[in-house]
UniProtKB/TrEMBL annotation:
It comes from the Bacteria. Keywords: DNA replication, DNA-directed DNA polymerase, Mutator protein, Nucleotidyltransferase, Transferase. GO terms for biological process: DNA repair; DNA replication; error-prone translesion synthesis; SOS response. Residues 12-210 form the UmuC domain. This is Possible DNA-directed DNA polymerase. SUPFAM superfamilies: DNA/RNA polymerases, Lesion bypass DNA polymerase (Y-family), little finger domain. Signal peptide: none annotated. Gene3D superfamilies: 3.30.70.270, 3.40.1170.60, 5' to 3' exonuclease, C-terminal subdomain (1.10.150.20), DNA polymerase, Y-family, little finger domain (3.30.1490.100). GO terms for molecular function: damaged DNA binding; DNA-directed DNA polymerase activity. Belongs to the DNA polymerase type-Y family. The keyword Amino-acid biosynthesis does not apply.
């Protein structure tokens, strides 16, 4: 059965480093990543009782540990179990080595780094070259095996590889088959969709379909991917809007996007969140943390030559009271620290009701390139220029000497967390990038 013969067929590899953090730590300890009984566990105070960031396949099998388990669920006294602190900078360095190897098979524009442990390679345009290197009888499966063996030999990692006619097909092959296959490989083409994709009934297992979307599909009577494929597209569009069209295309394995297009995608938002070291209830302490986080967002916007026209603040409750409150504020697009701080503080004054706060999330939205600033009759541009120059000096000093080169007084006061978080990456200990 040849579905949609007019659809372009590219040669895409979706590659996942199996249990990446745990594998990196196992390799560093001289252990086999597949047989080591190891977890990467954060014990930082602001993570409560500790989070499991990664578990080796054997640890998952023996103890039922997952990447969302808490420390109290881990048999820390079991002599078989190896526990490692996270070293985010080191994982980033290893990830760079992995993707540098991938660049031996594709041009940079045909490599999409999806996450720290997953990448997409479009080898369509480099296929002639690859055949000249590895033989005219080269297949995608042979190429996948070459890459798997090279990563195993040079770094020690085991890779799962999904191959498909497009990005979506490769991702489905990776998630739904390759990760559980004995040889960690799967290859899907349009012809495979009816027998491999359509029988799936756990819709939220399928990439891009979350639990909420799955429930909405169930309410429409769509209980499997086959049901979704045979559904009326107009009904899906009425229920989900543009996403309905994407869901219908997903059920048929259709994806016309290119990796080369993804390099030009504009970033729509920047965000930053943290779990506080304890419950905060004093408004001054909470505002000090919000100011610090606003400064970080502003610095990131400037570093990427972006400006934001809307900010969002979310305050999460304590462990005992998990409710959260959220507010938004629109402003003339800017990346100035002082303006963004005022915007976030304005939201805080509107939404905070005196409750205990344990986590804070800030986001800069409606982000666009900082080409030229729109004139505003109510702005004192002489003062505005002073603020811009001040931000530039702070950015320059922190880039050269580190984030703690300049610490504002509020960060030294009650509740400030910038100093304690200066060595963290993604909320966890950075460690040494070289091991």
């Amino acid at each position: 059965m040849r579905l949609f013969p007019a659809e372009e067929r590219r040669k895409i590899l979706a590659i996942d480093s199996k249990s990446f953090y745990a594998s990196v730590e196992a390799i560093e300890a001289g252990l086999n990543p597949l047989t080591a009984v190891l977890v990467v566990m954060s014990t930082a105070e602001n993570a409560g009782k500790g989070l499991i960031l990664a578990a080796s396949p054997m640890a998952k099998k023996l103890f039922g540990i997952s990447n969302v388990s808490r420390a109290y669920e881990v048999p820390v006294n079991d002599p078989r179990l190896v526990i490692k602190e996270p070293r985010m900078n080191y994982y980033i360095a290893v990830n760079k080595r992995v993707n540098d190897i991938f660049r031996a098979y594709v041009a940079d524009e045909d490599l999409h780094i999806y996450s720290i442990d997953e990448s997409f390679l479009d080898v369509t345009d480099s296929w002639t070259y690859l055949c000249s290197q590895y033989g005219a009888d080269l297949t995608l499966k042979k190429l996948a095996r070459i890459i798997q063996q090279r990563l195993r030999q040079e770094i020690g990692l085991y890779l799962s590889v999904g191959v498909g006619d497009n990005l979506t097909m490769a991702k489905l092959a990776l998630d739904l088959e390759a990760k559980g296959a004995h040889d960690l490989f799967a290859e899907w083409h349009f012809e495979d969709v009816p027998k491999k994709l359509w029988p799936i009934k756990n819709l939220d297992q399928v990439w891009s379909i979350g639990s909420r979307t799955a429930k909405r599909l169930h309410r429409l009577g769509l209980m499997s991917m086959r049901d979704l494929a045979l559904a009326d597209p107009t009904t899906l569009q009425a229920e989900f809007g543009v996403k309905g069209e994407a869901l219908f295309a997903l059920a048929w394995g259709i994806d016309r996007s290119r990796i080369t297009e993804k390099h030009g995608v504009k970033q729509r938002s920047l965000s930053n969140g943290q779990v506080l070291p304890r419950n905060y209830q004093d408004p001054l302490e909470i505002k000090n943390v919000i100011r610090e986080m606003a400064e970080q967002i502003a610095a990131r916007l400037r570093a990427e030559h972006l400006i934001s026209g809307q900010v969002t603040l979310t305050l999460g409750g304590s462990w005992q009271n998990s409710t959260s409150v959220r507010g938004q504020f629109g402003l003339s697009p800017t990346n100035q620290t002082s303006k963004l701080v005022v915007a976030f503080e304005t939201i805080f004054e509107q939404i905070y009701q005196g409750q205990s706060i344990r986590n804070i999330y800030v986001a800069a939205q409606k982000v666009q390139a900082n080409k030229r600033e729109q004139l505003d009759l109510f702005v004192d541009y002489r003062q505005d220029d002073k603020q811009k120059r001040l931000d530039q000096v702070v950015d320059m000093l922190r880039k050269q000497y580190g984030v703690t080169a300049i610490i504002k007084s509020n960060s030294l006061g009650a509740g400030g967390t910038m100093l304690s978080r200066a060595g963290l990456v993604g909320g966890h200990r950075g460690g040494n990038a070289y091991g």
